[in-house]
Design goal:
Elements (H helix, E strand, L loop, with lengths): L7 E10 L9 E6 L13 E4 L2 E8 L3 E6 L1 H6 L7 E7 L18 E11 L2 E9 H4 L7 E4 L2 E4 L2 E5 L2 E8 L1 H6 L10 E6 L1 H15 L1
Antiparallel strand pairs: 1-2, 1-6, 2-5, 3-4, 3-6, 4-5, 7-8, 7-13, 8-12, 9-10, 9-13, 11-12
């Protein structure tokens, strides 16, 4: 479990395919994480990388490595090439829950439709596909590339919806969201509570 409060921005410095030339092969990522790793971090620990829960398979002084399956690559963005990534350690018992409950299981991809300054903040709008649109609500929570954010507006249409998010300067400074541009794909995870409510409502209708 995670909270969507990014602890550091790391960088994928090496991408090594498991089987070169094989279309369904995953990749091995080496991630530079200056000052992020704890003394207690060990092999097998879970770390959210750009919002996706990954297992540590190698450790060094300021780097760690993870293996990403082809299934994960097909459902995420930003895990197949060198570049900056948001990082978060798994939640520990007693840790402060400053964001919202996040599982690190990416539900799908959104597309940035608008990203412009608005006063002292930035107005971020994301196109969300139809299969996830029903889980989003005004003042509800969503995770974008591993960052816990609040939905300020939802505009529905036949293809899904567009959500509006206000980003304060601090969020831009400490995450990779500052590098977004129109057309960029982002990893989305819907609020866990919304997921369970939808299931309960669906079961009630069939009984």
């Amino acid at each position: 479990m995670f909270t969507g409060i990014v602890a550091a921005v790391g960088r994928i410095i090496e991408v090594s395919p498991f089987n070169e030339g094989q279309e369904d092969a995953g990749v091995h990522l080496k991630i530079q994480a200056q000052g992020f790793l704890r003394d207690s971090t060990k092999l097998g620990d879970s770390i959210a990388v750009q919002g996706a829960c990954m297992t540590v398979v190698e450790l060094a002084a300021d780097t760690f490595s993870v293996d990403v399956s082809r299934e994960s690559l097909n459902r995420t963005a930003g895990l197949d090439a060198q570049g900056d990534v948001n990082l978060e350690h798994a939640l520990r018992m007693g840790d402060s829950l400053d964001g919202h409950l996040v599982s690190g299981h990416v539900d799908g991809l959104g597309e940035v439709s608008h990203f412009e300054p608005l006063g002292e903040s930035w107005d971020l709008r994301i196109r969300v596909p139809q299969n996830m649109a029903r889980f989003l609500a005004y003042k509800g929570s969503i995770t974008v590339n591993g960052v816990s954010l609040t939905v300020n507006e939802v505009d529905d249409d036949i293809s899904g919806c567009e959500i509006h998010i206000n980003l304060i300067p601090h969020t831009l400074q400490v995450t990779t969201l500052k590098d977004l541009s129109v057309g960029a794909l982002v990893n989305l995870e819907i609020d866990m509570i919304a997921r369970y409510v939808e299931r309960m409502v669906a079961q009630t209708k069939t009984n």
